Amino acid sequence: MTRKGWIYTGFFTALVLIFYFVLTKLIPGFDKKKVAPISSIKPIAFTNQDGQTVTDKDVAGKVFVAEYFFTTCKGICPKMNNNMRTVYEALKNEKDFLILSHTCDPETDSVAQIKKYADSMQVDTKKWVFLTGRKDSLYNMARSSYTIDDPANNLKSIDDDFLHTQYWALVDKEGDVRYIYDGLKESEVRSLIKKARLLLKKETESIIKREKE
Would you state the CATH architecture of domain 39-212? Predict the structure, then answer.
């Protein structure tokens, strides 16, 4: 390459770098890597341990973990919710954080039953919410929105269908599922806590930045 060619190359490289720098200043988040969400939650309407309806509007603007369990489970649920307590203790003081525990056995887990279970857990049910509702709605939410169970598991008869998953979904403030975790693995529980804090911090920093602009 000639000397003139090197000059032109250097000039256009500098121009591109300057243009990129200007865009990062003018467009917040331009220099951040964009990662598509795993999925997005659909509208919900379930009933909590106090008999109150919880909808997607109640979790809007919150970072939350979604799980499925049932109160009479003797298998994975006790260990899973013991690990979820670790999440609760770590993040219960975060204003914009929630845990949503959906039953996968609504025929047994009436409002009275999940209230009894919630009381036994001795947690703040404004931060850790226990939900029941229609079986088909609960299962569709797990498979189509949270994506913590394979949609192919859906049987033709909802009466014969049973969902029993150890996976948790971590949802950001925009209602997007960002990560899926195995609730039986302590290493993944620790990772969830870290990621949740990052999501909470990221949103807080964005709000502060907008307020300054």
Answer: 3-Layer(aba) Sandwich (3.40)
